[in-house]
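Title: [Solved] AcrR family transcriptional regulator 3D structure

Original question kept below for reference.
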Amino acid sequence: MRSRDTDKEELVKQKAIELIIKDGLEGFSMNKLAKACNISVGTPYVYYKDRDDLIMKVAMEELRVMEEFFTRDFDPEEPFEQGLRKQWENRYRYAREKPRMSQFFDQLRSSSYQEEFLSGFMPGFVSAMTRFMQNITERGEIETMPFEVYWSIAFGTLYNLIRFDMEGKSLGGTPFKMTDEVLWRAFDLVVKSLKK
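Solution (posted by the thread starter after getting help):
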């Protein structure tokens, strides 16, 4: 059995993410991956059992990274505006530092991997966000609403702005670049719409 080479393992992982983003899950294979890495066809199997194992291990590893970003300095006991601001900061920083990962996760969300992917979805983060929402609702800072409605209002604007920024254009092809002014003006509007 061949030994593990951490640099090669990282190359395999990064190329897998690139290929999945570029060709979709349907177009991704271990043979294409080996060719893109300029390694033998058997090398990815040193690190992963098969294609499914590779996809899920990469996803779970990246979810742990995402969870670390999202929960950094976030306290679910914080007042609404302060806690939401920290979430926007953390999510925006993650998007800036790991720009390809949202495209990778979008591929998984719309695939047969969705159920397995979501079953391991950042338990610490989900717990913290649930507590945060319960706290701000109990304190009367926002109206009681289904979590999905809250999430759509609280973060939908942010994720659309991030997408426009990454694409470099808004609807209709108008050039767009995120600025702090745009980001925090949008945040203020979201806070205003959610506050009681």
